[in-house]
Amino acid sequence: MTDTTQLEQQILADVAAAGDDAALETVRVAALGKSGSLTALLKMLGTLPPEERKTQGPLINGLKDRVSAALASRRDALKDAALEARLNTESVDVTLPVREAPAEIGRVHPITQVTDELTAIFADMGFAVAEGPDVETNDYNFTKLNFPEDHPARDMHDTFFFNPKPDGTRLLLRTHTSPVQVRTMLSQKPPIRVIIPGRTYRRDSDQTHTPMFHQVEGLVIDKGSHLGHLKWILEEFFKAFFEVDRVGMRFRPSFFPFTEPSLEVDLQYRRDKDEVRFGEGDQWMEILGCGMVHPNVLKNCGLDPDEYQGFAWGMGIDRLAMLKYGMPDLRAFFEADVRWLSHYGFRPLDVPTLAGGLSGGDGLARGGKNSSPNLATLASEEMTMDNKQIAELADKTLKPFLSPLGLDRVEVEPGRDHDDAPSLFVTAYYRPGSKVPEGDVLLKALGALHKAFLDVGEERFPYLDHRFAGEEEFEEGAFDGDTGAPSR
Ligand code: DAH
C-alpha cells in the first residue's frame, strides 16, 4: 500500500506544481492517460483474484477519484489566476471618445431631405408618388400638355434637345415634371392623386438657376375636384413644410397652356436679417404655379372633360430647400463639395415623418438633425481669433474677388446659423452704384473665405451677405422665380 500512497503523493505534488494548463495536462496524461501510472493500476485490478480485488478495488478507485478532483480544482485555480492576471494588466479607457457608427458619417443632401419631407406631408394627405423619365418626347413634354406647335411658350422653356431622329422627331430633357401628369393619366384610372418629384432641365445658369433643377408636381383628377380643394391642400402643405401655424397665401391669375384657369400662388413673408419667415410680414413671394387641368389635356389623355376634372400644381424643390434651410446659392447644391454637404446635409438615420418631426433639431433622442459631427466640434463658441482679426482676414481674402465690383468694406459678426451652430456672418458692403456680384465670383469668394478661416483654425462657417454702403440692400434675385425655372 505504500506503493499507492507514494504514487498518490507524487501525483498530487505534480498537480500542485503545474503552472499552466499545458503542464497540468501533462500531469493528467501521465496519471490517467492510456499508459498512465494510475491507468496501469486500474488495469492491473482486473487481473487480481477476487479476494485481493475486494481490498485493492476501493483503494485504487479512491485514489483515482482524489486525483481527478485535484486535477479539476487545479484547473479552476489556474483559470481564476489567468483571469486575475488579465484584469490586472488590461484596462479600458472610459474617457476615449465614442467611435462614430459608419451610418452616422454620411450626410443626406438637402434636396433628398426636402423631397422626403414633402413626400411625407403629401403621403399623409393620401397622395402617391409617380415618376417618369428625364428624357422625354416633345409630345409628352409639350404637345399633350396643350402647348400649341410653334407657340412661344415652348421657347420659354429653354429646352435641351437631342439630335433629330430619322423620322424628324426629337427627344428632349424634360423641362418640367408636368409630362408625368400625362403619363399618369394615360396609365391610371381616376380618381388620381399623385405628386411627382423629380429632376428637370433648362438651359440656364446663375446664382438661383442651374441647368438641372428639381420640381414637385401635384395632380388630382376626380369627378368633383375643385380649386377649393387645391387651396386647402397647398395651405396645409406649406404650414407643415415650413413648420408654422399659419401661412398667408395669395392667388394671382396667370397663364400655363395646360391649366385653365391658371394661377400663381404667393406666400406672405417677412425677412428677418438673413432669414425668411412665413406667415408674417407684408411681403409676398411667388412660390408655385397651378390651376384646373385644361379640358384639352384631359382629352389628350383619354379622359372625358364632361365627366372628370382636376387640378395640378408645380413648384421648385431646390427653392423650397433654399428657403427652409437658408442656403443662398443654388449652384453649391450640385458641386459635390463635402464640406458644404457636411454643413448643410442631414443625418441619414433621421427620416422625416410627420409624427417624428420633419427637420429634426427638436429632441434629445434625435440629437438635432443638422448637428453633424463637424458642427459638433464647432459647438464651442471660443474664438480662435478676435473679431477684429477675423474681419481683417475676411477683408483681405475677399478683396481680390470683390474689389473690382466696388467692394467698400467688410464686416464680420458672430452668430448662429439655422441649426443653431456658431457661424460667422460676413457682410460685404459695396459702393452705391456698384455692380451686383453674382455667379462664380460669389462662389469662389465664399470658398476662399471658408478656406482662409480653416487655415487659421477658425472652424465656424462663414455666410456671405451683400449690402450697399448706403444701407440699401441688394434686391435678392434669389426669391423671385416661381417654379425653379428662370423668371423673366
Ligand atoms: N410646369 C410649370 C413650369 O415648370 C409649373 C406648373 C404650373 C405646373 C402650373 C403645373 C401647373 O402643374 O398646374 O413652369
Description:
The chain is α+β, with helices and mostly antiparallel strands and 488 residues long. It is 39% helix and 21% strand. It is built from 16 helices and 13 strands. The chain has helices at 2-17, 21-32, 37-47, 50-89, 102-105, 110-124, 138-141, 152-156, 179-187, 227-242, 295-300, 317-325, 338-344, 373-378, 387-402, 440-455; strands at residues 128-129, 135-137, 171-173, 192-201, 212-222, 249-256, 259-272, 275-278, 283-293, 309-316, 407-416, 422-430, 461-468. Strands 1, 4, 5, 6, 7, 8, 9 and 10 form an eight-stranded mixed β-sheet that branches. The protein has a three-stranded mixed β-sheet with strand order 11-12-13, with helices on one face. Bound molecules: 3,4-dihydroxyphenylalanine. The site of 3,4-dihydroxyphenylalanine (DAH) has 13 residues, from strand 9 and strand 10.
